[in-house]
């Protein structure tokens, strides 16, 4: 039984006239009559009663029409769904994100993608970089957002943007009275750092920046993530450096101060990481939205990032490092 035969049958059943049915199908009458006869032969029943004056459905034809219409509709729906899936307009994407990234460009990416691809289910999972890397390799995650990279040949990444690091400190700290700070002003301060569960981390980059400024930071407290470090800083347990976008997180005793001084200013970068061999059209569509939002936010890198000790400098759209 061919799909074309079923379509011919439904049209003829609706028109009950071979000439009109042939016109709708853009076919001549002889091929239409032949295909209907072949369908009847395969089913072993007469679907139409024919005479010189008219064509009518037999009882078997009426039953077949009743049963086959929803099947044909499902087939058409399946064809449309397959076409949408092939263009990334249908399917599922599982997104991992570090907590600090939710204060920056990621919400705009998610809003835009959900608006432009409503047929794609988005499952958002907040987790640190190490967990995201493992989940990506185990195919439990489609794409992740991280601020540092770990070398892995199975993964690739897109560099989305870089943003300045700013000082987060308690308003009780004497340095809070200054409108801007140099990194060297923090030499005598205790630091709150967030190394997370994997290396290299943003904390390694902060140590590098401090060393470039002529001192090694004295770590007095460690935190799990950037926002936790900022919260501890608000309690005057030390100072820390956080992404500028984290200034959206307002706590009663927490203040932020930009860094100033000669030379390139410390920055943190945001990467989208995914499996190198993932052919998903939904992933391609999501990455395209990431790129568009990064361009709209002015996220083209302008300053060097601190490399991890002993690691080669990573490149945009390269291997995850």
From TrEMBL:
Gene Ontology MF: a single term: DNA binding
InterPro entries attached to this UniProt entry: LysR_HTH_N (IPR000847), LysR_subst-bd (IPR005119), WH-like_DNA-bd_sf (IPR036388), WH_DNA-bd_sf (IPR036390)
One Pfam family recorded for the sequence: HTH_1
Positions with biased composition (Low complexity): 303-313
Region described as Disordered: 295-321
Keyword annotations of the record: DNA-binding, Transcription, Transcription regulation
GO cellular component: protein-DNA complex
Domain HTH lysR-type: 1-58
Family as reported in the entry's similarity comment: Belongs to the LysR transcriptional regulatory family.
Name used for this protein in its record: LysR family transcriptional regulator
């Amino acid at each position: 039984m061919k799909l074309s035969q079923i379509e011919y049958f439904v049209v003829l059943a609706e028109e009950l006239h071979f000439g009109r049915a042939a016109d709708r199908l853009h076919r001549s009458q002889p091929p239409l009559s032949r295909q209907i006869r072949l369908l009847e032969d395969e089913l072993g029943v007469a679907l139409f009663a024919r005479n010189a004056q008219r064509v009518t459905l037999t009882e078997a034809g009426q039953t077949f029409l009743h049963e086959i219409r929803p099947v044909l509709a499902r087939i058409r729906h399946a064809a449309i769904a397959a076409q949408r899936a092939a263009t990334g307009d249908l399917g599922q994407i599982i997104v991992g994100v570090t907590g600090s990234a939710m204060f920056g460009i990621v919400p705009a990416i998610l809003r835009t993608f959900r608006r432009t691809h409503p047929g794609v289910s988005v499952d958002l999972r907040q987790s640190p970089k190490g967990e995201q890397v493992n989940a990506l390799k185990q195919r439990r995650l489609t794409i992740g957002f991280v601020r540092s990279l770990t070398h892995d040949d199975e993964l690739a990444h897109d560099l989305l943007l870089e943003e300045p690091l700013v000082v987060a400190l308690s308003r009780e700290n004497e340095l809070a009275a200054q409108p801007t700070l140099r990194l060297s002003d923090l030499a005598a301060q205790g630091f709150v750092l967030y190394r997370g569960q994997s290396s290299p981390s943003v904390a390694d980059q902060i140590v590098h920046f401090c060393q470039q400024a002529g001192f090694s930071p004295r770590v007095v407290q460690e935190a799990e993530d950037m926002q936790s470090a900022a919260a501890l800083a608000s309690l005057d347990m030390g100072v820390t450096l956080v992404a500028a976008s984290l200034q959206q997180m307002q706590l009663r005793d927490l203040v932020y101060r930009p860094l100033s001084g000669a030379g390139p200013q410390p920055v943190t970068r945001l990467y989208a990481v995914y499996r190198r061999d993932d052919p998903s059209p939904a992933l391609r569509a999501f990455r395209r939205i990431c790129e568009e939002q990064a361009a709209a936010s002015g996220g083209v890198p302008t300053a060097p990032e601190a490399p991890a000790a002993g690691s080669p400098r990573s490149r945009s759209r390269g291997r995850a490092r």
